[in-house]
Design brief:
The complex is a heterodimer. Chain A is of the alpha+beta class. Chain A contains 8 helices and 8 strands. Chain A is globular. Chain B folds into 2 domains: about 220 residues, Peroxisomal Thiolase, Chain A, domain 1 (3-Layer(aba) Sandwich), CATH 3.40.47; about 150 residues, Thiolase/Chalcone synthase (Peroxisomal Thiolase, Chain A, domain 1), CATH 3.40.47. The longest helix of chain B has 19 residues. The chains are: A alpha+beta, B alpha/beta. The interface between A and B is large, with 53 and 55 residues. Strand 5 of chain A pairs antiparallel with strand 5 of chain B.
């Protein structure tokens, strides 16, 4: 059952060289020269200062930057305890970009150099770990893999987590990276509250689909 | 809120192809961990627990053509088929959902020899889920949970929640991982493999042993589908927010999970936890962290074991097959000794089970932790 007073209070999309915050284009990078260059330019544009960013793989960089811009105006820890904030993220390719990169370091026995700093990113939930470390979030988290973005499942599952009092706010969405194709949408779900700044739309699958479509 | 019962289960591992066969070997103190000297996995020998390939082929041949399916798919189909054999749950009903837990699925498809044999699309975890859904003619959109070493346990927790909220009557949680060059080299690069079969919580422990396998648990809210009444009374997950590849030094993340799991289970279960099935990988840091979290939660006197000494660390299967073994302990009122453990080597004085004995078990806490700082906990209770 959907809870009536759950709201999407912030959203951020990164796709096609653009950053879209709350449905408005906030940053465009002209002269696209590959994802690593693009995501660095986003990092610099928003003056994010977090050196660990440079150690992350592409998927984590994409998820991390999207979460930074999603939470820019939100001081979550001033409203919630760290285990009251959940993170539920999904994608299609799991960690396939880094899987292939890692595999290339071991497939040739005469050129065999497996690296722990690459291997650790062959799990998609590492991205959730990175966002948790940055924001000191310790609540419920899980990573799901679907062929296509599935707002119905996410909405349903997050409602269960709110209903059973496991979380009081949730970062959720879709962060996918494969073969230099990238697509991320994260949204923040909170209970309706006058103190919520930012956007205020009902947390329903149709509304998530609308946000997702805005750059198709 | 409907109760979530365990209807049936299956374990496929180095110790056998049914739950019963696995448990019988555990009772006989047999470990499936062996020295593997095979350049397809690693240039150097290492200890691991492998599913018998010849048996997998011949058992699978009884139900379908093994040439058409990957090793991962064969194990999954066999595991689900066996669990369904022991349950009245209708797989073809729209009230039944599949949850698939895995870290790497068909990762061996990256090998050129496999790329030539199979459709490359099999690299996608959702494709494995779709294959199982279609193979068993299940009408619901399957859910894949890929959350490092807690994937299996998290699958059971998520399945239970979907039943408790009346979204589904039955959830078939299946999950596993195959041993591959990919995974072996990765853990070797982390220097986390043990030089001998792993020794959870022991003073001389020096790392984990990898394993492979599959587990399936059929959850249901329908008591008619159940023989011995064991239900899920609590479940929770948390994040350490500390480090992506190392467990927290304090155990705070796992402590939060245990605390929230106990809270959900309520005082009746919480005050009567009889047994803890730990993650207990045998690495210095994991076991130390768990001992701290268990102690912080005030559970240091409760008997605790790890099954990793029998099966190794089976990654996506671990939470499932270890939960099934723990449920079996409850049914048989038997605590199994921690294979590989002789003298405690963790700083907190927890009660590691060092000999198999009969004890009444009504409530069991199962915990797991993994890369990315994730933790999960679940409580099984006898009705």
């Amino acid at each position: 059952m959907l809870i009536k007073n759950l709201k999407i209070t912030s959203s951020c999309i990164i796709r096609f060289n653009k950053v879209i915050i709350n449905d408005k284009i906030d940053y465009v990078k002209d002269n696209y020269a590959g994802f690593p260059d693009f995501i660095r330019s986003v990092y610099r544009n928003y003056k994010i200062n977090y050196p660990k960013f440079f150690k992350m793989d592409n998927l984590s960089k994409l998820g991390f930057i999207t979460s930074e811009l999603l939470l820019k105006q939100k001081n979550l820890l001033s409203k919630y305890k760290n285990d009251e904030i959940g993170i539920i993220i999904s994608n299609s390719g799991s960690s396939i970009d880094t899987d292939i990169k890692y595999y290339n370091t071991i497939k040739n026995k005469s050129n065999y150099f497996p690296s722990p700093s690459v291997f650790v990113y062959t799990l998609p939930n590492i991205m959730i770990g990175e966002i948790c470390i940055r924001n000191k979030i310790m609540g419920e988290s899980s990573f799901f893999v679907f062929e296509k973005f599935d707002p119905d499942f996410l909405c349903n599952y997050i409602n269960i987590l709110f209903n059973t009092l496991k979380i009081k706010s949730c970062i959720s969405g879709w962060v996918d990276f494969e073969d230099d194709k990238y697509e991320s949408l994260l949204f923040l779900v909170e209970k309706e509250n006058k103190k919520n700044n930012g956007r205020n739309i009902n947390f329903e699958p149709e509304n998530i689909r609308q946000i997702y479509k805005c750059l198709k | 809120m409907p109760d979530v019962y365990i209807s049936a289960d299956n374990i496929i591992s180095s110790l056998g192809f049914t739950t019963e066969e696995n448990i019988n070997n555990i009772k006989k103190n047999i470990t499936g961990i062996k020295l593997i000297n095979n350049s397809n996995f690693s240039p150097t020998p290492f200890y691991a627990s492998l599913v018998d390939s010849e048996r997998l082929y011949s058992d699978f041949k009884n139900i379908d053509n093994p040439e058409k399916f990957t090793r991962f798919e064969q194990m999954a189909i066999l595991s689900i088929t066996d669990a369904l054999r022991n349950s009245k749950v209708d797989i073809k009903n729209k009230n039944t959902l599949f949850i698939i837990s895995t870290t790497k699925g068909n990762i061996d498809i990256l090998k050129q020899s496999n790329k030539n044999r199979f459709d490359y699309k099999k690299i996608y975890l959702w494709d494995s889920a779709k294959l199982l859904q279609q193979y068993f003619e299940n009408p619901s959109m399957p859910v894949v949970v890929s959350n490092a070493c807690i994937s299996g346990l998290l699958g059971i927790i998520i399945g239970s929640r979907l039943i408790q909220s009346s979204q589904f009557e039955n959830v078939i949680v299946t999950g596993g991982d195959i041993l591959s060059e990919f995974v072996v080299s990765g853990f070797q690069s982390f220097l986390s493999l043990s030089t001998v079969p792993c020794r959870p919580f022991d003073v001389s422990r020096d790392g984990l042993s990898l394993g492979e396998g599959f587990g399936t648990i059929i959850l249901t809210s329908n008591p008619e589908y159940v023989n011995k009444k064991i239900i899920v009374t609590g479940g929770s997950s948390s994040n350490d927010a500390n480090h992506i590849s190392g467990p927290s030094r304090t155990g705070k993340g796992l402590y939060i999970t245990i605390k929230n799991t106990l809270k959900e289970a309520g005082s009746k279960a919480t005050e009567n936890i009889d047994y803890i099935s730990a993650h207990g990988t045998g690495t210095v840091y994991n076991d130390e962290m768990e001992s701290k979290a268990i102690t912080s939660a005030g559970l240091e006197n409760i008997p605790v074991n790890s099954f990793k000494g029998y099966w190794g660390h089976t990654l996506g299967a671990a939470g499932l097959i270890e939960s099934i073994a723990a449920i079996n302990s409850m049914k048989e009122n038997t605590l199994y000794k921690t294979m590989g453990f002789s003298k405690s080597g963790v700083s907190k004085n927890i009660n590691v089970i060092d000999k198999t004995e009969e004890v009444k078990i009504n409530n069991c806490l199962k915990i797991a932790s993994g890369f990315g700082g994730c933790n999960a906990g679940i409580i099984f209770s006898k009705l």
